[in-house]
Amino acid sequence: MEKKAKKKLIIPIAVDKKYLARTLLIVDFLVKLIEFRGHHFGFDINDQNIIKILDREIHLSIRNVGKYVTNDDSKYASRDFVMTELLCVQMYEDTWNRKEWKDTPYSAIEEKLIRVMAYIELYAKYSHEYHLELKESWRKQAIIREQEIEKQKRLKMKKGN
User: CB under 8 Å, gap of 24 or more: what pairs does 37-41 form?
Assistant: First the structure.
């Protein structure tokens, strides 16, 4: 019998090697904070790691912020993508609604982690409430459609008699 490998928690990290130690400290703090707040890690339908908060699936990632610089070495005008020393924590539920927190000259990302967690929790709460309202709206629309279908059937039966 073949033994299945257990899925492991993986938070996407895309940072330069010299910032890895700092990034791992941030990830360690976030994981401990998320678990302390009573939330759980899991996997979405694509086997990507998610944070489960109020039945919402929140993705989290950490990366270096990059920028484009003009390449003057070439006789043709070109730009190169260069990583900066700035780190960015990113969260999203769907691919189109991302929120990022970055290092700034005035405050490091480590100082913002509590605010990041608070935002994620509030976002999950509002998203949960929105989806409950949406499901209720769909349920009411389905009832109205069923009533319309029944009404149409009764009208056809009356016309047939």
Answer: 37/117, 37/121, 41/9
